[in-house]
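Complex 493.
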Amino acid sequence: MGKPTGFMEIKREKGKERDPLKRLGDWKEYAAPLSDEALSRQGARCMDCGTPFCHMGMDINAFTSGCPIYNLIPEWNDLVYKGRWKEALERLMKTNNFPEFTGRVCPAPCEGSCTLAISDPAVSIKNIERAIIDKGFENGWITPRIPEKRTGKKIAVIGSGPAGLASADQLNQAGHSVTVYERADRAGGLLTYGIPNMKLDKEVVERRVRLLTQEGIDFITNTEVGKDITAEELKEQYDAVILCTGAQKQRDLVLEGREAKGVHFAMDYLTTSTKSLLDSNFKDGQFIDAEGKDVIVIGGGDTGADCVATALRQKCRSVVQFGKHPQLPAERTADNMWPEYPHVFNLEYAYEEAQAKFGDDPREYSIQTKKIVADEQGNLKELHTVQMEKVKGENGQYIFTEIPGTEKVWPAQLVFIAIGFEGPEHPVLSAFGVETKNRRVDAAYGNYKTNVEGVFAAGDARRGQSLIVWAIHEGREVAKQVDSHLMGATVLP
Ligand SMILES: Cc1cc2nc3c(=O)[nH]c(=O)nc-3n(C[C@H](O)[C@H](O)[C@H](O)COP(=O)(O)OP(=O)(O)OC[C@H]3O[C@@H](n4cnc5c(N)ncnc54)[C@H](O)[C@@H]3O)c2cc1C
Ligand code: SF4
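Predicted structure with flavin-adenine dinucleotide bound:
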């Protein structure tokens, strides 16, 4: 274990973050690593509990608790404490194909269920994970692992997000020939076109895709399956197909004035911004520009926060984010106890930046948009809202009611809709004749088989919008199923 008395002597240190005002001047990652000494101290805080809840990986009350890929956290905490970084890397790579992604942007449900978090701040698990893999790349310990033998079996993976990449990685290591089809011009799914560069530098994603390519995986981008190549062609050419097409069908706002010019889906904003940054450092002008505008983001989640941070970097005049729910409490409440994911107030990176720039947290809570108003040319002019009260109904379910007299008008020239996702897009699923249930691909957790022989599904397409760490988990698990399907048994962990 770490230092036996470490948890009593050493305070938690969070990863360093760049100064909020300074980082608004660029698109580089806002989070910076801790020093080796600080990381060793943090590793020393791990108690190596008899039953380590940090890596149990399960849903409690619909939220994730513990690490879904069962990372061997206490083991690598101890190795980092002792400065045995290369061994820590070996332990980490046993369970996580892409720690450089999770170590940067995972919401770290492991920390919520860390035993130390019952009475003290949790071990800085996510920072340690990131440091181990970054050191692995810096020191040249990560080299292409080219499989010695090939099985002769061919697999098509559709979609290159974390689920597709993890399944491709596992199946390639098992000796199968894997081709990944991606409709976008770059691989990575939401790692590339979703999560902004200041959270996850795209060079980090590209570095991993280059490595997977060197290991033998074939990436075919700019190719939409069901349109540029048919499902029949793929079924003929490959021994198995895995659908990892995500759940990117955005939920729309059904509201008077929705058609006003200046109202956009959040994903259109985030995607075009990243693409323009990568293609030309914004010189091509192919993005939605918030410069000098009053911006309102409708939707209180993380996608909305990423819009806030993007608008700030574009030098918006003001930015507000509307959320339906009340502000979270500062500490856990009685109905959200350890080891559940903690639903507590947090000043995430985007909000910290808005506060530094404008003096205020940009979030407005318990608010509902009633209508959108455009000027005579159809350009967005203002939003009309009302405050809501959230109360428990007779059956225990929550109901929202308007509070009379709280109507307000907000000037805005740009609005981003970030109220969630409906599920996977259907054309590709129909092309394969794959059935859906509750708007997701109908493939049972654990076996990942669809109703079509030889066609599997994993990641957000199967479970709905979720987390990168769950996509990696499902990518690894579906690979085992496909390997068994093709070979009669699996060699995969
Ligand atoms: C803005 C935003 C921010 C997020 N931030 C975080 C975060 O900080 N931390 C976190 O853990 N999670 C985050 N998430 C969630 C996380 O990104 C997803 O859960 C995860 O990427 C899902 O992985 P996936 O591989 O299943 O699908 P995706 O990443 O959605 O990838 C699916 C891929 O399939 C491709 N595709 C679809 N149809 C076809 C077709 N017919 N032919 C070829 N290709 C096709 C798509 O182009 C896409 O590249 C965020 C999500 C969003 C939207
Ligand atoms: S992948 Fe996420 S949950 Fe697992 S150890 Fe890393 S930060 Fe924690």
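The chain has three domains: 6-138, 154-248+422-487, 252-419.
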